[in-house]
C-alpha cells in the first residue's frame, strides 16, 4: 500500500503543477479558394462541433484542469486574424460564449488570397508557446489546398517538433458533385500532402471532410479524437 501511495503521489505532483490539461489552437483556412458560403460552413461547422453533446462532455470533463481553446483564421502570408483569444473552458457558459463568438463572426472584405500554410503553422506554434503550463499542446489546422506562398510546411517541422507540440490536420476535399470520382483522387492527393508535410508529433493524424458540407461532422470526429488522447483519472 505504501508503494502504491508513493506512486500516486509522484503521478499527482506533475498534474498539480499544470494550468490545463490541453491547449488546443484551431487554425481555419480562409484563403482565396474559400468562397462566402464555404466560409460560413466552416465557422458554423466548428461552432456545431464544439457544441455537440460528445465534444461538450469531453471539454467539460475536468473543469479543475481545463482545456484552453484559441481560434484563428489564416490566408496569405500577412493575413492571419485571431477570432477567439485563449479561453479556459471551465464551464458550459464559457463554452457557449466561444460558440456565440464563432457564430457572430463576419468575413473580412479585405482578406487576401493565397495559401500560406507554413506561416499559419508557425503562427499556431507561437500561440501554443504561450501555454507552456499545459500538459499537452495541439495545433488543429484546416486546409483545402497545398501551400503556395511563404515557407514550405516541411521546412518548419524540426523546429515545431523541438517545441513539443502536435500538429493535426483537417483536409477539406472538393464538394462539387460534377467532379465525380475525380474528387476522391484529389482528396487522396491532398491528404498525402498533409500527412507528409504538415502533421507532426505523437499520434498526429489527418481527418478528411468531403467538402465544406461535411466540415462540421469531420471536425467533431477530429475534436473527439484529440480530446480523447489524454485520459486523466480522478482516482
Automatic annotation (TrEMBL):
Tree of life domain: Bacteria
Signal sequence residues: 1-17
Alphabetized InterPro entries for the sequence: DUF1194, vWFA_dom_sf
UniProtKB keywords: Signal
Protein name: DUF1194 domain-containing protein
Organism phylogeny: Bacteria, Pseudomonadati, Pseudomonadota, Alphaproteobacteria, Rhodobacterales
